Amino acid sequence: MSHERISILGLGAMGRALASALLEAGREVTLWNRTPGKAGGLVARGAREASSVEDAVGAGDLTVACLLDDASVRETLAPAMPKLAGRTLVNLTSGSVRQARELAGWLERYGVSLLAGGIMAVPPTVGTGGAFILYSGARDLFDRVAPVLAPIGRPHWVGEDPGFAALYDMAALSGMYGMGAGTDHAVALVHAEGGDVDTFKREVLQPWMEQMLPIMVAGADVSESVPDEYNPAMQATGLENILSASGEAGVPADLAGHLRASLWRMRRALAAR
Ligand code: FVH
Predict the structure, then answer these.
(1) Domain 5-159 has what CATH class?
(2) Which ligand 1 atom is the nearest neighbour of the CA of 118?
(3) 69 alpha carbon to ligand 1 midpoint, in Å?
(4) 6-phosphogluconate dehydrogenase NADP-binding domain: which residues (predicted)?
(5) How far is the C-alpha of 273 from the C-alpha of 270, rounded, in Å?
């Protein structure tokens, strides 16, 4: 099976971006969305809007689901399961590891192959050089699907376990939100004390984050030890200073949760010595 005809279920911001990148690459695309009327511009570019989920599933060699959550995937697919039997579903809907494993089991009972996915892109970066998509499931299935979906982002297989795409997706998002919490807090602190936020972002925060990112990723660890050059007593004191500065500036304490998490880790490292 060529998998060249792709049906997309879900035309939210991400579903539309996926459809756009696939149309751009010359794929035959069929679209379905719970609320009609979101396919307009894509239909004008050659996509077909299906009249029902069954219609969409029947039109594609490959069905891609990009919906809100696991429950919406189940609800959407349920009436179309007989049509989906013997075909492939690529699920690019975010969810938990357990949900992905259970979805694979549910689909298997109907003879549907699942390639689970996690999108490492935001709608404007879909199809650009930095975008990549995590996939997990059978390796031979990935090998067949990867070239077909490559236009949305570099395909990256992370293992046979259908839960692994969700696992790495969730973990990577946690890293991103941690970074976001830190940058939001940094800006709040500068703003609260009368600093120029734009200048701070451009001249200090950006180069500092760029310098530290590879070190932070390389040093991320599950153990409670901290390398000698990053003395945990020194770091605990530094974190207490930032928390004090934040309190003095009147920055809401909830914005500093990431600092308390790091302080907890340094205190654990000290206690373990
Ligand atoms: N947008 C992003 O930046 C992130 C990047 C990483 C991956 N995520 C995940 O992608 C999934 C879809 O996200 P989205 O951005 O397209 O989300 P929305 O624009 O809110 O669209 C949601 C679509 O889901 C449909 N939907 C919701 N509930 C149901 C339901 N019960 N049955 C059928 N469809 C449902 C909704 O349809 P409608 O409201 O237009 O009728 C939209 O098509 C998501 O897992 C992200 O975590 C995006």
Answers:
(1) alpha beta
(2) 7
(3) 7
(4) 6-154
(5) 5
